[in-house]
Amino acid sequence: VRQLMKQRRPPGFPPGPSPIPVIGNIMSLATEPHVFLKKQSEIHGQIFSLDLGGILTVVLTGYDCIRECLYNQGDVFADRPSLPLFQKMTKMGGLLNCKYGKGWIEHRKLACNSFRYFGSGQRQFERKISEECMFFVDAIDEHKGKPFNPKHLVTNAVSNITNLIIFGQRFTYDNRNFQHMIEIFSENVELAVSGWALLYNAFPWIEYVPFGKHQKLFRNAAEVYDFLLEVINGFSQGRVPHAPRHYVDAYLDELEQNKGEPGSSFSQENLIYSVGELIIAGTETTTNTLRWAMLYMTLYPNIQERVHREIDSVLENGRVPTMEDKQKMPFVEAVLHEILRFCNIVPLGIFRATTQEAKVNGYTIPKGTMVITNLYSVHMDEKYWTDPGVFSPQRFLDSNGNFVKREAFLPFSMGKRCCLGEQLARMEMFLFFTTLLQRFHLQFPPGTVPTVTPKLGMTLQPQPYSICAVRRQQKS
Ligand code: HEM
């Protein structure tokens, strides 16, 4: 912290808006920070700085600048900031918020291997996702075309895919304890970027102020960790060493193998943190993407109709979609990409920090400086997108209707700390989305049109909305 809080802008540091005494620029992050920060870059440049209550922060804007730092200087921008909040939550261990070093390497490797071994590398895994898709559309069918808020069903279905990898099992949609855990965990994702959290980072002594949202954050975290410990213990019952059934078993193998090794980062505590991080990182994001997709398909009936047509022409007689079908469905691909670009699920990425002194665009950034990657600004970058403010799946298609990749597309970020669940998320989005639209026509309850203004937090999600899912065809 001392390192983070050192000084006012040091020599060679990027410029930025003038800070208000003591709290600096914290208040400017209160509403739509990603939009505000993009506007600030028009005044101060692609790389500029903020003072978050004494914590000097560098903000990276636009594709060129973010690529230069996260990719060309990958090792330099690979750390996470040692903010008091993160120190309190996961002691800079676990995986997602882990310091860049041995602990992160060990945890990232284990998670990547497990995701491959128990997930996408397994032949039956795709079938298991399809099974979950069926539970999901059957549960929606129970609403019989009447209005309902899809949030809980989407959350349950999506988190079950990660649950399969982590615990080897899905949870049924009526499991109240699991749902409660996810609910308070995602509340924390929201609270983590609230004004209170920023204040706590700048002034950790407010830990002793007995009211305020930071207290709620700590209470929620304690409850989540208790729940996870119990579930981990439950699912590790009957474990046979060196014959892992899921991520938790694989972790316990590592823990046992490295027992007594002085430098080992595997511990009961880091197991709980990484399980929690994998669950929430996988669930919040993919759920929000699918909820946005449902909302936009309903707002744009023409686009929905074209999706229906493509699905019907590829999946003859209503057969179940598989990943092989993806290349035959360029329009579905284009829609999902445009949702990720336009809706900016993780608008400011996950905070980074420098591992050593960095030189960018002639500026000097000291080691340990907090770095915000404005991924929203990449997706709105005028240099790479025409009319970025318009929702148009067409921009991902060529004149023959083939899908085309676009460079300035970073919903999963890039470089050393890029999203490790990208492949899994892409499978889930494709299979859930096509299965859903194969069976249903989505429309708003008569007389209602929900807002597209997002709810703010680390991730952007739609405000709660009701939808009618009207069956299109008989299940074959
Ligand atoms: C990191 C986006 C799905 C696990 C990230 C980051 C972003 C992101 C922007 C920050 C990377 C950085 O620091 O630059 C998304 C989106 C998803 C998604 C948009 C879905 C549409 C998933 C899934 C999982 C996952 C399904 C796993 C189950 C992680 C983890 C990290 C991460 C563990 C931290 C990586 C590290 O620090 O080394 N994700 N993600 N994500 N994501 Fe995802």
Write the layout of secondary structure elements.
Layout: H1 2-5, H2 33-44, E1 47-52, E2 55-61, H3 63-72, H4 84-90, H5 102-120, H6 125-141, H7 151-167, H8 176-191, H9 195-202, H10 213-236, H11 247-257, H12 268-299, H13 301-314, H14 330-343, E3 352-353, E4 358-360, E5 363-365, E6 370-374, H15 375-379, H16 422-439, E7 440-443, E8 454-455, E9 461-462, E10 468-471
Parallel strand pairs: 2-6
Antiparallel strand pairs: 1-2, 3-6, 4-5, 7-10, 8-9
What does this molecule look like?
The chain is α+β, with helices and mostly antiparallel strands. It has 16 helices and ten strands. The chain has helices at residues 2-5, 33-44, 63-72, 84-90, 102-120, 125-141, 151-167, 176-191, 195-202, 213-236, 247-257, 268-299, 301-314, 330-343, 375-379, 422-439, and strands at residues 47-52, 55-61, 352-353, 358-360, 363-365, 370-374, 440-443, 454-455, 461-462, 468-471. The strands form four sheets. It has a four-stranded mixed beta sheet with strand order 1-2-6-3. It has a two-stranded antiparallel sheet with strand order 4-5. A hairpin with a 2-residue loop joins β1 and β2. The model has no long low-confidence stretch (mean pLDDT 94). The structure holds protoporphyrin IX containing FE.
List keywords for this structure.
476 residues; alpha+beta; 4-stranded mixed sheet; two-stranded antiparallel ribbon; 16 helices; 10 strands; 48% helix; globular; binds protoporphyrin IX containing FE
Helix-and-strand structural type: alpha+beta
Calculate the mean pLDDT score and round it. 94
> Can you write the helix and strand succession as a string?
HHEEHHHHHHHHHHHHEEEEHHEEEE
The coarse silhouette is: globular
Residues in β-strands, percent: 5-15%
Strand order of the largest sheet: 1-2-6-3
Largest sheet: 4 strands, mixed
Distinct bound molecules: protoporphyrin IX containing FE
Percent helix: 40-55%
Q: How many E strands? A: 10
Q: What is Rg?
A: 23 Å
Low confidence ranges: none
Please count the helical segments: 16
Report, as a whole number of angstroms, the end-to-end distance: 60 Å
